[in-house]
Amino acid sequence: MAHLGVSRSGIPGQNSPSDMDIFVTLRHFDVQGKEIFYTGSMGDPVPVVKGWLRVSLRKVNENHPRHRAYLPYREYRKANVQDAEAGKVCPVDIELWPTNGIVGKGNTLALEVSSRDTQGTGIFGHYDPDDRSVFATICCRFKPNTDMDY
């Protein structure tokens, strides 16, 4: 799970979206900086793991028996919708699909946070022009270290 604090802001003179989509991708790079891809369900090259969340649907039911500290449980009910107020930071927990892999010595992991789908989505993309806006992508790289808690 990726635990982030996010906020939205408008673009002066334009209608500002009332919601946000957050897409998280964990990428694996070798010592030379070349990305290492894995095989996706359609046979296509994909990054280590992906996750996404519509921010208004961030409400987690911590009392549900399926809720785990590493796997938030959401009911996705209309009554659970929480607006993403402009200028207000709100915590979001973005589920990442369970996976495993070996990160070799000197390799790096990059956590990419975006407002749209990134490479490796295949036919499972989120492309509705009336329902999706495109903004910035942020990428952070981490060197595996046994002293770090991921």
Characterization of the model:
By secondary structure, this protein is mostly beta strands. The chain has a single domain (2-142), classed as Jelly Rolls (Sandwich). It contains no helices and nine strands. Strands 2, 3, 6, 8 and 9 form a five-stranded antiparallel beta sheet that branches. A two-stranded antiparallel sheet has the order 1-7. A two-stranded antiparallel sheet has the order 4-5. The chain is globular. The N and C termini lie close together (10 Å).
CATH topology: Jelly Rolls
Basic shape: globular
Distance between the termini: 10 Å
Q: At the fourth CATH level, what is the homologous superfamily? A: Galactose-binding domain-like
Number of domains: 1
**Contiguous uncertain segments of 5+ residues:** 134-139, 146-150
Q: How much β-strand is present in the residues?
A: 25-35%
DSSP summary: helix tally = 0
**Secondary-structure element pattern, one letter each:** EEEEEEEEE
Given helix and strand content, the structural type is mainly beta
Q: Helical residue percent?
A: under 10%
Number of strands: 9
Largest sheet: 5 strands, antiparallel
| Rounded average pLDDT | 79
Q: Using the 3D structure, state the CATH architecture.
A: Sandwich
Radius of gyration: 17 Å
Main CATH class: Mainly Beta
Q: What oligomerization state is this entry in? A: single chain
Give keywords:
mainly beta, Jelly Rolls, 5-stranded antiparallel β-sheet, globular, disordered C terminus
